[in-house]
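User: Hi! I'm working on a homework problem where we have to compare a predicted structure to a textbook description. Could you give me the structure for the chain below?
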Amino acid sequence: MTDRYGMVNPAIFEDLQARVDEDSNVRDELREIIQTLEKQGRSVQFVLSRAHSTPASAIRDVLSAAKSSIGNEVDTVSKLSGAASKLPYYKWNSMWSRQIQDATFGILFCGWLGGYTTEGSDAQPGRLLTIEEVGQIMNVPVNLKDRDEFHLTIEEYLQALISLVDELARLARNSVTLGDYHRPLLISQFIKDLHAGFQILNLKNDSLRRRSDGIKYRVR
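Assistant: Happy to help. Predicted structure tokens:
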């Protein structure tokens, strides 16, 4: 006779399978939204790449098209937020973190070019949008500590800032080709200021620290 205390109840494994299936369904739902966000991110970057061949005096049309594309991203981020906020954030956020970094970079670059200004004012290049401003544009909270919901993290914002530095270093070279010698000086000062800001940070994330170390080469 088998000791009943030595038996393994199959219900344990049935419950585990149900949880595995639930996680799989959630992953599939998130993956579909993330793929859409990734595609939209490429569209935003394609539009913004026109800045490299557009004189600063004619940048308004590029910014208008970029903001329209970013609006599509914001709609998708809202869907992602709705789906992700039902879940333990830090269990799943690695699925979409890179796409959110890319979306943040697009907003930061558009903002630097002068895309986000007060109503009625002219585009003013060279401005750094804060993490709070990016969160407002995305319609998501930032750096949440008091609840386990979807948000824009400081790390994602900083990663996007480093991508912005790389993009501006390329823009400086292309601006000279266009005969614009003012923009490279603006970029130079901006990157120097960002480098000084990163020097203040005590970064714990290895990837972020390695990437931030490269800013000094952009300064040069």
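For your comparison, note the following. The first helix runs from residue 10 to 48. The chain is about 70% helix and 0% strand. Good luck with the assignment!
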